[in-house]
Amino acid sequence: MNCPYCSSADTRVVNSRPSDEGAAIRRRRECTVCGRRFTTYERAQFEALMVIKRSGRREAFNPDKLLQKLRIACNKRPITEKQLREFAYTLEDTLQAPEVGAEEIGLHALRFLKSLDDVAYIRFLSVYRDFDSVERFIEEIKQLGAPSSEAEPEKR
Ligand SMILES: [Zn+2]
Question: Cα(103)–Cα(95) distance, rounded to whole angstroms?
Answer without folding.
Answer: 13
